């Protein structure tokens, strides 16, 4: 028997996935009509190429978040699926990519040009920005080199500007946070 929170999460996931499928279907149908009926833009290949990531992420959301029910007619919840509304998870980025794709689909329909897909470069740019915040501290730490060693020697040598207590506190800060075990 599933708990109330699992049932609540399952119903929330189903509602979100159904809404996502409906909006995606409408926008992609309008894009296809604009391409093949109106002939704007002239080629459908850029739309297809740039929509594939959205389709794959939508499929991933469906396979991860859609709950599983028993087949014996009792409609019992077997698996509630992962929480796709969880803040700070990878699913949050999935939704961002899907929303950007929808926006660019609508811009392609309105403007009638495939040049709007250049704005899709926002996604890798944002990924580089996020990764740089993670990687740069390691690079800066290693680039200190000789200047960092000279400053450390000056501190240990009895720098008159700071007291011994301040030097100890500075050394602790540079060492990093202490690991506490229970």
Automatic annotation (TrEMBL):
Protein's membrane topology: Multi-pass membrane protein
Cellular location(s): Endoplasmic reticulum membrane
UniProt KW keywords: Endoplasmic reticulum, Membrane, Transmembrane, Transmembrane helix
Biological processes per GO annotation: vacuolar protein processing
CC terms in the record's Gene Ontology section: endoplasmic reticulum membrane; vacuole
Pfam families registered for this protein in UniProt: TMEM208_SND2
Compositionally biased tracts (Basic and acidic residues): 171-182
Bias type Low complexity, positions: 148-158
Presence of the UniProt keyword Transmembrane helix in the record: yes
Residue ranges of the TM segments: 20-38, 93-111, 117-139
Region: Disordered, residue numbers: 143-182
Superkingdom, natural source: Eukaryota
Name listed for the protein in its UniProt record: Late endosome and vacuole interface protein 10
Signal sequence range: none
Family designation: Belongs to the TMEM208 family.
């Amino acid at each position: 028997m599933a708990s109330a929170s699992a049932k609540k999460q399952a119903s929330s996931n189903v509602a979100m996935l159904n809404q996502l499928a409906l909006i995606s279907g409408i926008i992609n149908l309008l894009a296809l009509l604009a391409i093949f009926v109106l002939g704007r833009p002239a080629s459908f290949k850029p739309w297809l190429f740039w929509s594939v990531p959205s389709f794959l992420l939508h499929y991933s959301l469906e396979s991860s978040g859609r709950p599983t029910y028993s087949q014996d007619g009792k409609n019992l919840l077997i698996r509630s699926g992962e929480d796709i509304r969880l803040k700070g998870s990878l699913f949050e980025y999935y939704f961002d990519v899907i929303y950007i794709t929808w926006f660019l689909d609508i811009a392609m329909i309105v403007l009638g040009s495939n040049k709007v897909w250049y704005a899709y470069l926002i996604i890798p740019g944002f990924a580089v920005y996020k990764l740089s915040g993670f990687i740069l501290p390691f690079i800066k730490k290693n680039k200190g080199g000789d200047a960092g060693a000279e400053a450390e020697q000056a501190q240990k040598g009895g720098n008159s500007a700071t007291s011994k207590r301040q030097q100890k506190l500075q050394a602790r800060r540079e060492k990093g946070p202490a690991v506490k075990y229970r």
